[in-house]
Design brief:
This protein is 42% helix and 16% strand. The chain is an alpha/beta fold and 352 residues long.
Length: 352
């Protein structure tokens, strides 16, 4: 009996002594070589669990899931984590690489002063396009006019898709009309709705699922979607040697921005390793590897020298100062605003 107890205690001590960092993240959202380098650097093992949506992550943590050290939520998901006391403040004295973060991505509305979070990567919502075809037609894709101006749409009728997402499409229409992407002014929402309804007959579809494939095949020439998806479409078209080039870029009126952030859970078993990991991911070369792998935007100024040349020159990944000022993170709507937007959206979807 004593021998069994000794064995159990020994096993428990060994398990406790094992150097393991638990990360809860989006799938395919950290380069494998980065993980291996961190494991070698900290002489530990990284164990990852994945979620496919912010709601899934929030639900799991709210239900009491334990054992994770670092989590990577999108901006709007941070306030619930902070409000429910599920994350702990970051000891910035142990994060010297914070100096590498572009100040434009700090002090967001979701975590003023970055007490609990530091930016990891971002995507923008923009236009991807068949560069060859638009050049032939003399269409400049740097404006939302490409999907809303009927004079332009007449040249590409049936070759355009937009996201099947009320928040994103209204944001684009609001910006096209000179309003804030976060406007909740009823008159401005009505103007945005009218713009969408007027343009709708020229679109092929509302499509949030297959626009990467459709762009790559050349079935559509313009797609409203996410920058990392457009990166994949451009790469796929190049890989299969299409006779045209797929490209993507920001619009002059502004674009929406989704920033993912590193946070440390209050229940983190290894807060020491969590801080080491966050600091490690803010080192330029380490930060660059995710951008090179999936084409996400990068809030880390020190990453630029390590990013592939063709990605670095794309302002959707490395926005210049003027473009950064026009990027807007969408704010959550209250219950009444969600109902009002839903009503306007239903009218759009049922319009002829």
């Amino acid at each position: 009996m004593k021998k069994l107890l000794f064995t159990l205690l020994l096993a428990a001590n060994m398990a406790q002594a094992e150097e393991v960092l638990h990360v809860y993240n989006w799938n395919n959202y950290i380069a494998p070589e980065t993980v291996k380098r961190f494991e070698a650097d900290c002489k530990c093992r990284v164990v990852q669990d994945y979620y496919g949506a912010m709601e899934e992550m929030l639900a799991k943590l709210s239900a009491g899931a334990k054992g994770y050290d670092v989590v990577v939520p999108t901006g709007f998901a941070m306030p619930p984590l902070i409000k429910q006391g599920m994350v702990q403040p970051l000891d910035k004295s142990k994060l010297p690489n914070i100096k590498n973060v572009n100040p434009a991505f700090l002090n967001s509305q979701f975590d003023p002063g970055n007490k609990f979070s530091l930016p990891y990567s971002f995507t923008t919502t923009l236009l991807g396009f068949n560069q060859t075809k638009l050049k032939e037609l003399g269409i400049e894709p740097n404006s939302w006019a490409v999907i809303f101006d009927t004079a332009i749409l007449a040249k590409i009728k049936g070759k355009v898709t937009v996201l099947d997402d009320a928040n994103e499409l209204f944001a684009a229409s609001l910006m096209y009309n000179g309003f804030s992407a976060n406007s909740t002014n009823p008159a401005e929402w009505k103007k945005a709705q009218e713009t969408i309804i007027k343009a709708k007959p020229f679109w092929a579809a509302f499509n949030s699922q297959s626009y990467i494939k459709e762009l790559t095949l050349g079935n559509i020439w313009v797609a409203h979607g996410y920058s990392s998806d457009m990166f994949q479409a451009a790469a796929d078209a190049k890989t299969v040697k299409r006779a045209f080039t797929v490209s993507y870029g920001l619009q002059k009126e502004g674009n929406t921005l989704s920033v993912d952030n590193m946070m440390m859970l209050k229940s983190a078993p290894r807060p020491d390793l969590a801080l080491k990991f966050i600091n490690f991911m803010m080192e330029g070369k380490n930060s660059s590897e995710l951008t090179n792998m999936v084409g996400t935007g990068n809030p880390n100024s020190a990453a630029a020298p390590f990013v592939h040349a063709e990605i670095k020159k794309n302002t959707a990944v490395f926005p210049d100062e003027a473009a950064l000022k026009k990027l807007q993170q969408l704010k959550p709507l209250d219950a009444k605003q969600r109902r009002d937007l839903s009503r306007l959206w239903t009218q759009i979807k049922t319009s002829k």
